[in-house]
Amino acid sequence: MAGSGRMYTSTGCGGVGVGVGVGVGDDSSNSLSVFIQSQKRSCSSHSLDASFLSSRPSPSAFLGSRSMMSFEDVNRVSGSTRSFFRAFDHDENGDDDLDEYFHQPEKKRRLTVNQVQFLEKSFEVENKLEPERKIQLAKDLGLQPRQVAIWFQNRRARWKTKQLEKDYDVLQSSFNDLKNDYENLLKEKDKLKSQVLLLTDKLQAKEKEGSENNAELCVANEADQAALSEEQPQQKPINVAHESVSEVEVEVEVEEVSKVSSIVVGKQEDLSSAKSDIFDSDSPHYADGVHSNSLLEMETGDSSYVFEPDQSDLSQDEDDHKLIINKTVLLPTYIFPKLEETDEDYSDPPVTNSCNFGFPIEDNAFWSWTY
DNA sequence: TTGTGTTTTATTGCCTCC
DNA sequence: GGAGGCAATAAAACACAA
Q1: A349-to-A193, A333, A338 alpha-carbon distances in Å
Q2: What is the spatial distance between Cα A173 and Cα A37, in angstroms, rounded to a whole number?
Q3: Does residue A101 lie within 7 Å of nucleic acid chain C, judged by its CB?
Q4: Is A15:A4 a contact under the CB 8 Å cutoff?
Q5: N or C: less crowded end of chain A, CB within 10 Å?
Q6: What is the mean pLDDT of residues A31-47?
Q7: DNA-binding region at which residues (predicted)?
């Protein structure tokens, strides 16, 4: 044992190296040697070991036979007899062993099963030890108060370790869950990304087609305008104005599509950063189903991007002028209704609302990350 | 029986609280 | 300043495979 012991005089414990205290209690007539000799005569080697261990006949523990005998039923249930005390099983040199024992420095001895059970129960009630309880427990168990305090201290340390292991397991499993979610969302994102590219190509093709028609219309309008100007020179040509607006709007639409595309496609970094936010998923930020729309508004600067089922018909069998549609509905209908064509079946989600575009509500985190 | 890893008991030094 | 808690550590006791 390294160094000198810390002396706890106030608790009355002897600590290491206090000296052999023999029978100073109410049953002081029972000297240590008498006690041991009687045990040797009446007990098997095991019970001798048990009784001896339970009463902790260490130099510091033998401060009185009262504490020595106060704890009942001290059979040591488990444990081998490989301990130091096996020496007492040999009758022929028992006295020599006793002398040898008491000239040896203090040895550690484990508490009995019953002592430990008693302490465990007490620990369950309260894991901190007030002085009164410590004294009482020490009395009940035939231990030094200091031993009880040390046991509680070590027990608290073990409890803390176990608790940390539990916490670690919980965190580990929740991390794995979130990791799986994240990987699924990445896959989903890639799918959407390719869809956006496809639709952008489509849109550009339509735009090309539209401008060709516009050119034809312009030629026709010029002829009309010439005829009309002859009749009503003051009147402004309505069709021309209409068509010039159409051109502008087509441009606006293309810009908006690329804008939204970049929002969807260019959010790879956001997903990465969202990784670190995963651990804050309790935040209402991620539970807000409307949040995605709000973010989209912020990105586009247009509060009119409310993705509702669009009544506009963008099919090609309509007049080409139908291409020019209010931008408030054009983009969503170009991009999102096509989701129904994907492998994923969103047609019958478990829970949906008007803000999650038909995605299962639990997938809303995706939108929080993407937008 | 022995070597080795684990558990338990105990010590030490530092810190906080009263 | 003393009491008590905690982290780190030592060392004995114990379990178990070879």
Answers
A1: 21, 20, 16
A2: 59
A3: no
A4: no
A5: N
A6: 30
A7: 104-163
Q: Rounded to a whole number, what is the distance in angstroms from the first to the last CA of chain A?
A: 65
Looking at per-residue confidence, does A157 or A353 come out higher? A157
Which candidate, A50, A58, A52, places its Cα nearest to that of A37?
A52
Alpha-carbon span A27 to A68, nearest angstrom = 10
A2 is near strand C: CB distance < 7 Å: yes
For residue A360, give the DSSP letter. Answer: -
Structure token pair of residue A325: 């549609």
Say how far residue A57 (Cα) sits from the centre of its chain: 49
CB crowding A114-142: b at 16 or more within 10 Å, else e:
bbeebbeebbeeeeebeeebbeebbebbb
Q: Residue A98 in contact with residue A33, Cβ under 8 Å? A: yes
A128 touches strand C (CB under 7 A): yes
Q: Which residue is nearest to nucleotide B12 (CA to C1')?
A: A6
Percentage with pLDDT > 70 across chain A: 29
Work out the pLDDT band at A350, boundaries 50, 70, 90: very low
Nearest nucleotide by C1' position to the A157 CA atom? C6
Angle at which helices A145-231 and A238-265 cross, to 10°:
160
Q: Which nucleotide is nearest to A108 (CA to C1')?
A: C12
> What is A5-41 written as a DSSP string?
PPP-GGGT---TTS----S-STTTTS-HHHHHHHHHH
What whole-number distance in Å separates Cα of residue A179 and Cα of residue A172?
A: 10
Question: Residue A47 is encoded by which pair of tokens?
Answer: 């019970």
Amino acid at A180: N
- Cβ of A110 near strand B (distance < 7 A): yes
- For residue A2, say whether its CB is under 7 Å from any atom of strand B: yes
